[in-house]
Amino acid sequence: MHAIMQILQLYWTTPIIPVVFLGITVGIIGGALPGISPSITMALLVPFTYTMSAPMAIVLLATTYLGAEYGGSVPAILINTPGTNSSVVTTIDGYAMKLKGLAPEALGISLYSGVLGALVGFVLLTLLTKPLVKVALAFTPMSYFALGVLGLSIIATLGGKNLFKALATGIVGMMVSTIGADPISGVNRFTFGQPDLISGIEPVLIMVGLFAVSEILLQAGEPAWDRVSGRARLRFPNGAMRRRLVKPQVIGAAVGTFEGCMPGAGGTVASFIAYNEARRWSRYKEEFGHGSPEGVAAPETSNATVTYSALIPTLSFGIPGSNSTAVLLGGLLIQGLTPGPQLFAQSPHVIDGLYGGMFAAPFVLLVMGILILPACIWLVNRPRAYLMAFILALIFSGVYSINNSMFDLGIVMVAGVAGFVMRKLDLPFLPAVLGLVLGFMVESNYRRSLVVSGGDKWIFLQDHISAAFLVVAALFVFGSLGNQLRLEIKRRRGLRDGVTPA
Amino acid sequence: MLKDLIGGLLLLSLAALYYHFSLSIQHSSLSDAVGADGFPKGLAAILGGLSVILIAKSVVQLGLALHRGTLALGIDPELIHSILRALGMLAIAVGFLYLLPYAGYPLAVVVLIAVVGVYQRRPFAWPLWATSIGGAAIFWGLFVYLLEIPLPTGSWFGGA
Question: Where is A62: in which H helix or E strand?
Fold first, then answer.
């Protein structure tokens, strides 16, 4: 009751509701534009959050994430082009429903499932993150170092068959984090006499370059996407259909919860698993792939739940599990906040604000999902050339407004080119972002710990939290290495037996 | 395979370059036992090692593919097209950055939208100019008027 009163008070005393409306609206529009992922939409918004209060900034970014996940389903259903990676699976049955003349029903199921998934996600977010406040007080420099190592070890699980590439790009991210004044002695490193580099490179500049600029460079050579024909409407499921959708929605929410909490898994994996599981448990298996409403409900519920559950490792451990939560972390850093356990102890108003915003978000999503649909379709039908030009102008204007610096624009361009090269060479982004965000934390706390212990490295194992984190990190790395070795042996056996690898 | 080889070589070059510059980091009397250059040198060594593994793996795979006769040599025309288009877009973006201090924010944005439009094959007609001028007006209104960001007014017009 006290918590509800606190949230209501927030609604009256802060501009949180308009911010939620703004975040959801921008998110839906961004997600609906093919190629503009939730992380890109969020990265484009980050410069605007610079002048906002910390709670409002985080609410804006988090609600944009939710809006974008729903927005991605709009072109997925209407033109068979997923607006986001996690809506790829929605194209299968969503577009098939559209071909049967059931586009309004598919859009309605997507929105209805998204709202339910978000509500489940909110309950989980509040239940799972608050208890971590107690842990915050026990953290030492050793724990922070080990937490950083644990975060970096996730790179190994992200890598899959490209483990070495993932680890290498993670190291590149850490290298970028070393630019600027040394955290212990203050000696300048890799600044090349540039005063703009002394305070280091803000992670958000790298993220905007990697995600947004590289996408514009990539889109320059891509063919135009299809146009939405006719007038699209949205129709919510009736009672019988709502009962039929309960099972896939429960599956979607469960998968979304688990995958979102697992750092590195992300919404795309979750939506595919949710779809598969929904098909497996469905009484109408034969409909899947041919316009099954359950095939839309499961991944869309999962996508919405992930936007909440992915905040749990991001907020409580400071470890972003996906590109979108990495940008959110960048938003926290730009506000001068330290993501991780300390956030709860030092800035409870930010957490309260976030809870307040995320509680209102599903209801706002419901309203804006209906209202914004014509605008989304109008935007998807605009010539892509103008969209690209506007996004480029938005990137430059937004980035300039952070520090009023032309130098920052140069950094964003360099990061954009690097991102384009990485895309072409199949080098993953997320490890680089993790390295960039966690590099400073790892180095500074490692060195502080050694100063405390007089150079004795055993201190990392003597500290219980640190030791636990390091053991889990080692399990992640060796588990991934073992997994890769197993796959390689299997592949070679397949080759020897004359089976062509897929 | 070829991508991995190119990626490995690029990463190895980066590791070498980073290590080279880490040698010139000054030593401070305030420094700890690790030193300001300790962490960067370690990172360079790890990246170097990972790059070598990546290169070795791709060389072995290339050799195997060559041995089996499954190695497809030749450059993908789509890749070249994509890279050239990206370079064109990059040139436009860099041109915008050079133009901005001279022409000022509104004019530079008009030129940016128009040039990107033409580059992406929009007809050189009134909708292009209307969108460019309208777009620049929206951006100016949002950033300069509403958010009060001091974007460059342009030295050609006597501004900063």
Answer: helix A54-71
The answer on pLDDT for B60 being more than 60 is yes
List of residues 6+ apart from A442 with CB closer than 8 A: A145, A148, A149, A152, A174
Beta carbons of B137 and B125 less than 8 angstroms apart: no
Length of chain A: 502
pLDDT tens, residue by residue, A308-319: 988 888 887 777
| Residues whose CB falls within 8 Å of the CB of residue B144, separated by 6 or more in sequence, listed in order | B105, B150, B151
Question: Coil, helix or strand for B23?
Answer: coil
What is the reported pLDDT for A491?
Answer: 74
Summarize pLDDT for A280-307 with one digit per residue, the tens.
888 988 899 889 999 999 999 999 999 9
Rounded average pLDDT over A192-214? 87
Please write the tens of the pLDDT for every residue from A362-382. Answer: 999 999 999 988 888 787 778
Look at residue A267 and tell me whether its pLDDT is greater than 80. Answer: no
User: How much is the mean pLDDT over chain A?
Assistant: 85
Contact A35, A76 (CB under 8 A): no
Mutation target for A interface from B43, B100, B118: give the one with most A CBs within 10 A.
B43
Would you state the structure tokens that stand for residue A39, as one six-digit string?
A: 């992380």
Residue B121, class by beta-carbon neighbours within 10 Å (0-12 exposed, 13-18 middle, 19+ buried)?
A: exposed
pLDDT greater than 70 at residue A264:
no
pTM (predicted TM-score): 0.80
Q: How many CB atoms lie within 10 A of CB A126?
A: 15
Helix (H, G, I), strand (E, B) or coil at A180: strand
CB contact under 8 A, A451 and B32: yes
Report yes or no: B20 at the A interface, CB cutoff 8 Å: no
| Cross-chain Cβ contact A172/B28 below 8 Å | no
Residue linked to tokens 């990206």 = B86
- In this model, does residue B38 exceed pLDDT 70? yes
Between chains, do B47 and A392 touch, taking CB under 8 Å as contact?
no
Among candidates B14, B53, B81 on the partner chain, residue whose Cβ is nearest the Cβ of A221? B81
- Cβ-based contacts of B136 with chain A (< 8 Å): 393
Does the pLDDT value for residue A18 go beyond 50? yes
Closest CB to A189 among B32, B40, B86: B40
Whole-number Cα distances in Å, A329 to A40, A264, A317, A325, B1: 14, 14, 11, 6, 34
CB A418 within 8 A of CB A209: yes
The pLDDT value given to residue A260: 80
State whether residue A122 sits within 8 Å of chain B by CB: no
Structural domain spans, chain A: 2-496
In chain B, pLDDT over 90 holds for what percent of residues? 55
pLDDT at residue A27, rounded to an integer: 92
DSSP line for A351-397: HHHHHHHHHHHHHHHHHHHHHSHHHHHHHHTS-HHHHHHHHHHHHHH
CB contact set of A474 (below 8 Å; sequence gap of 6+)? A153
Q: Is any Cβ of chain A less than 8 angstroms from the Cβ of B36?
A: yes
